[in-house]
Structures
1.
Amino acid sequence: MAITDMRKVRMAVHKSIVDELIDKIQKLGCCQFIEADRESVDEKSIASTKSRLSRVDDLLGEVRFALRFLEPFATEKGSGIARAMGDMPSVGLSELAEMASEERLSKICAEVREKERVLSDARAGMSRVRGFISQLRPLVGLPFALDLYSKGTEGIAGSLFTIPKEQLSAFRSGVISAFGEMVDLYVLPTGEKDLTATVSLLYPRESEQQVQDLLTGYSVTRIDVPQQLSGVVSDELALLEREFDEMDAAERAAEADIVEIANDVYRRCQCFSDYWGIRKAQLESLISGDQTEQIVLLSFWIPHVRVHDFEKLVASYESLIDVVVTEPECGENPPILLRNVGWASPVEPLTTMYGTPTYGAFDPTAVVAPFFYLFFGMCFGDAGYGLLISSFLLFLMLRKRVTGTLRKFFMILIIGNLSALVFGALTFSWFGDAITSFPFLRFLMPLKSLQILSPMTDPMTMLYISLTLGFIQILVGLSIAMYENLRRGDKVAAFCDQGGWMVFLVGLVLVGLSKTGVLPISIRMSSFVALVGAVVLIATQGRGKAGVFAKLFSGLMSLYNVTGYLGDVLSYSRLLALGLGSAAVGMVINLLVNLVKDMPYVGIVLAVLIFVLGHLFSIAVNILGAFIHSLRLQYVEFFGKFYEANGEDFTPLCVSTQYVKVSEGVE
């Protein structure tokens, strides 16, 4: 069965062994803990565990800060792609625990915090000084000390502001008229294109209110002078630039100090993150249950095939543990773990990406896989591309320790590209029409004997094949829905809904094939099959309505849904369209190569560049289109006929790491 049978385990564990047992269950990696009813949980009993979890969260917060801070400085941190490909250091679990002790973590993170403080202080100082410099540069040429504008003296106050040039003359006249020689008005030199002028105004302190009233009559913008700046602008600028240079040197020294330790500390923090992530997962599982003074009550889901492994694990704790294993009760929804045969299992992520199957329902993975591989090959449709990509991915998988979902994704592409290899051979598409376009490849002409289809010259045959495959997949979807209804005991829905539509649709197809002479059957017989299906649908599709007329009317109107099925079948014409697109792009690239290869001096170089870059571009574009459109046909046209996706993924407690590979103590 593709959906693994689950069992529910309830156990009562003495607190003296619970940490040790949780650690072993995590290494077993097949138990998903169930959150207890929080209303019935004694919060006081789990307060200690919550406190431990809070401490672990704090430690992880410190580690994440250190990683974020050190990342720009570390040169040997490793990329996410490399880690996904299995390029991670291998560390024993006991070694990891010793390396990532709380004492070491706290000490290293405190050191990182201190270095971050020194660097931040230097950068903050540089930012402050840079701000002062930017404020003073427009004031170069001002002959007065700056503290006259920020503080003034006992008898003199000052204002510094900008004013539109067109108001400057009127403002000057207004100042002279109001104060005469009691004020000092100074205008800094301006450029011809400047729209405003910077003005200094010094005046007796007792006239301050009169000056402010005068300024309100003009469009002035005040310039605030920092109180830290007191001297003449030129002197202050010189001091600030020297201070900026000192802080810049301090910043470089701090960065050099950080770079010196960055790689080593970054690797240590990666180990800290993984180890304390493992510990956090343990505590979260522990806190999912309930506790008494001496006992911890826990529940979890486990695959039926792993129950024996769990029983062996807890056998040595027989006197301190009580375990009950039961089947899921009615109304419970166990998590979903998919188990498919080798050739279909890579497609499991595509199934769950749409939605996880409902427990006990049908898992479509094994049915989707052959259709997806076939459709991918038809859309990509080039033997050269398929051979190149499948060989490259196989090489990567042999050289790297690719695991998990990425390995399944690679397998999807490998099988899909092998399908493209076969389909390309059948259509004689090898890097487009490269074999016939380039004389030096003519030795490969025997491959033409494999050709049985020609989409470019005979697209209608490919269209018929695409629509036939689509019709078959839709019938398969209806058959699965019919099977599910029969399994649930709903025979009426099975035979009247899915059965009626299957007979009606097959009858319509037979009518078309018999009229065109494709099938040697009489039109009367094919029409009879379609009529039987139509009668079944008219008689049953309105069975939920009240009254005979309403039932018949609803049944009759249900036949209109045939347009939906027609649209679904026509959607499969994209298999032809994408296959033609891939071939056409390859042919255009080869044509461009032939156009430039005879150019003097640079022709061969340009031809090679166009061939390589053009076909790489074609591969990138067409492989993406082949993947997306093949997947769309499964999600939209196929899954909609039967698929119930209301399940939740199985997420067991396991030793899960991001930066290192745990090499011991994990089964």
Note: The chain is about 60% helix and 10% strand.
2.
Amino acid sequence: FINSHKGKYPIEFDMIGYEPEPWQIYHSILLSRLMAWELNLSWWVDLTLGRLVEKVGIERASMVFPNYSSSSPTINFKAAEKGKSFFSGQSIYSGISSVAGFMQIVQSYRKYFNMDASGVGSNSWVIDSSRSLSGKPIIANDPHLTLPAPSKWFEMHLTAPGWNVAGASFPGSPFIIIGHNAKIAWALTNAMIDESDFYIEKLDSTKLDSVRQNKTPLQYLYDKKSIPIESHEEIIRIGKDDSITINVRRTHHGPIISDVHPSTEKVKNSKLISMRWAGSDVSKESYALYLINKSNNAQDFVRGVREFAVPGQNISYADVDGNIGYWTAAKIPLRGKYDSMLPLPGWSSDYEWKGYVPFEQLPKSWNPKEGFIATANNKIENNSPYYISNLYMPPSRIERIRELLNSEKKFSADDFKRFQNDCVSSYAKFVTHVLLKSFELYPPNNESIKSALEYLKNWDFKHSSTDIASTIFNVFFVKLLHNTFEDEMGIDLFSDYVFFSAVPINVMDKLLQSDNSVWFDDINTERMETKDDVIQKSLSDAVKQLQKELGSAMKNWQWGNLHTITFEHPIGTQKYLDKIFNIGPFKIGGSSNTINNGEYNFSNPYKEIVGPSTRIVVDMAKPLEYYSVITTGQSGQPLHKHYDDQTTLWLNGVYRKVIMDENEIKNSGWRKLTLTPME
């Protein structure tokens, strides 16, 4: 197509003067690394917490480190009874602000490509034959990603000798990422693996004179040995004729990321910080998908899962024989007994990875007694013999999924469609309870606050687009985050701290369960504020903001008036072009704590930027059909009829039935497009 359509490319190529490169096999392989980078935010947390320690000290910072309640649901209930010690922290973080430039670059990249949010959520669940009305397993999946136009997903039915598989794929990938064939079905959610660490490197000061005289390269210390820093140049091409050359330096841990931004030179006592990432190691995700796509049974499936490493995934399974299963498909680093949520001393082997958890020891489950398996980026297991992560998403979604799966004895595919569109939040129920209790002790005099409290008292915790209590709650919660953290952190660090939404939500859960915390105190005032002070101030601030933005009549405070979604095209960020390229805005329900995810950025509320990027339900009683919907449409051409023809379906929780039976397809009267390879 590239060769035969020179000068006739889609309009955005002409608008930015871009000449596409010929597509190569390695471009398809690189897709997995791009997704691995997008879905890996453990590195973001490490750098943010390191900067937090530098600013407020290890004691205060550790109070707001991410956590996941041990009483919340896990995926795997077969856990070993061993604990884990943590590295208590050393005063080595002075100058770590040198990484702020690196984080700014990544933020700019993510914002430009409509990824200005954590975007690492997803739901999946599968029931066995005993829980299914059809008598066969049913599996459901809705991966939560950022929501650009065109859709991230391309629906595909792939047939060839030995192949008959369908589902959702990424443009450029020759395989189905999520889907099923005539024998098995599988679903993916992010496993939230902590697969990155940063190392503060110590230069060998005894060699600096030799370096200045250009006799030897710069060297760093590791276990009292002096090792040269490797370096090479890379060319980044800009447009047709321009380019810049950068010098990439690396230690044995990985690239030195504190070099990336020129602002590094302005940071006093800046440090050399290198990055260790599982995604830098060789793995075979394309081969894994090839094997999974062709699987006929559980044994074939496991052979494929073995090859999958990044981004670490929870892979759920169902087959026509009635089996269900789950496997953690990831490279989980084997660490020592130290806290990996902070940058580590790079000069000591005590903080090195000792390899990866062997595949056979990864968490898994087959045909559990419960009759179902559910994953929602929640904790994989308690008391694991090795550290997996402490960066799990809040338990609200998994709690609601399990509540629904325990509400009846048997379910249908239609039930699962309804579940995927559920907007009830158990987290909102907990926080609202704390809020109401605070005002019971200190009743308000303000009539508007009294009215807001009445809405919250009568709330069913369903975040529908027409609901008023949802609006009050979400604006209150954003104010609560600002009033709790921003005075100590400052606006820039606060924005980084709340970027990965799981961190502030889980931390606030912990703080609200405590009697009090020094973090509730406003350091800019003379008095010592309490939890109740901050809660009451936050509701008061929320009511004032809503009166200013939506008017004094609370009947107009519907959630959809604030919480909207626009599927934005990169070209649509330009003035006047948004009407052509973007799809929306639309009023929408949900929040980051509902099954029907509606995440917004806490620093720039309340536009939804993360949600179900596709919804898929497969009943293995009818393995040659499934139900699906994507956010926009199959076409990337803004004026094409299939550019946005699924958006209305997606917004209203409607699905399309997709068929895989060859005879039924031939008799359906659908249009047929034949693509003939060039000889």
Note: The first helix runs from residue 11 to 16.
3.
Amino acid sequence: FQGIRREVKGSAEFKISLYDLQTACYQSLQRILVLLGRTNDALLIAEKSRNRAFVDLLQERHNKKSKGAVPKIESSPETVEELEKLVNRQKATVLYYSLAAGYLYSWLIMPHRGIVKFHQTCLIEDEEELEKPECERGGYMLENHIQSVRESLGIDNDSAETSNKDEEETNTSGVWSNHLEELGDKLNQDSDRTGFLRMVNRSSRMNASSYSLSSLFSVGSVGGGSTVGGLTPSRAGSTRSRRSGWQGHSSLRNLYQLLIEPMEDDLPEGYPCELLLVLEGDLYLIPFPVLKGTNCTEYLCERFSLLVIPSLTNLKTKPIKSKPTGEAGPPTKLVVGNPKIPSSVTDHWGWTDIPHAEAEANIVAEILQTKPVTGNQATKDNLLAQLAEAESIHLATHVSWKLSAIIVSPGEFMESKSPTGGNPRRYSIHNDTIHEEDDVKSEATTIELPALSEFLLTAADILKLKLSAKLVVLSSCYTRDKHGCATSDGVIGLSRALLAAGAQCVLMSLWPVPDTAVKLIMKAFYSSLLQGSRVSRALAEAMTAVQTTKYFQHPANWAGFVLIGQDVKLTHRVAMMGQALREIISTP
């Protein structure tokens, strides 16, 4: 399939259909190798599977730039020994997870010790359910645990809110959510000619723990339906119907038993140790920092500095150099806060003014000794002009996870107010216009908005950039409406786009956090970075600092931050001085 996909001259849709079939084959092969006892080879196949879209993207870029001979492209390791060498190049212990056809496979890999342990779990609680059609199955263990954790932390109240609404409003919300997903797919499809983001997200959906081998081939057939339409409704319904099984801290213990406990005896001891998590799909939504076992008194973030990567191949990705060495000046920083959004956009999309984000941007800019970009200045064109050269980027803005987009100011716009009325409204989205239909009147009133491309910095837009940033912080702590609950597609889409564009590390918030807690986290995080710490250590120290305060001890205030990428240090002159002092003190 890999050879066919590279040689075929068909449409992008045809290539993506082949990609789906290849995904199904990789999952089948993982299962077969595990059954044969060849678990190390199954790890190699898991790594190859999740790198395909990135390798295709690199191939496409090199083909455009080069004429004649094509430069050598970093590809997936071909042997288990090559995988182990990647781990040996750094000092963190690696927990590698793969979701394949209803199973969770996990490997513990340690530097200079190789693959230490393998474990597998069937995520369909009744294995007989694997043979049933997807719509008739029950007991999706991983989805249930994730949903229960989010509800017990008080960060996902959709079900509670929905139960208090009447049926008509619930249907309206569902239609709006579906429109957002369709629009997000369209935005990525039109702007991402290589198909990278669509492949990444489709692979994530096909790797859902609720998929059996038979259902994988049925949805992934050439010319068949999209995995989006076949998967989302049934999964949503199944999780909502079985949420009452786990409540409070038991859901955290269940996830710990599923993900960490099988490897517990072989994990390194003594803080600070680095733990590298290789994740995919819904695993990105798990708040790993707050997990702890039944007999353990410490959270995982108190035992380890945590870092997430999409694949081990990411460890050997080389950063993009924006300037020749002789021309390099002092590294720049870009800090953005509270882009100005016109009222017409706010009324219909829900992105309100966020003065606390502007206050956060001012605090971060003061620490980094730079000037923040806020309000009307935070336009898409202005940001695109500065993103490529910045060593560190901090974005305190709204984020639409369903659109995989960062919300920025559209620049010049006309303020307008939408018509108001007491009747419920339905929305249909066509290109850059929202049509509002009144239930009573037969004629629809059309409200013109700025073009979507003017106030959305999408994952596809980011993918076209060449970033030199060591660190990108996406502080979406203020989005508390229908866009604000992170989805696996949104997290994966934005993070993979930033990494593929050249960023070395991305910090994201998975749910809204109180304003004061955000400021405490960011102050402690950047202060630790400027003292010479690596990003994983800086985040661990920031979480500990907030956790020990009187008013923000609850994990919902600090456990939702995830680091994705490499464990970098800043080259800010204060940070370099801090690094030097740290080295001198540690080795007199």
Note: The CA atoms of residues 422 and 438 lie 10 Å apart.
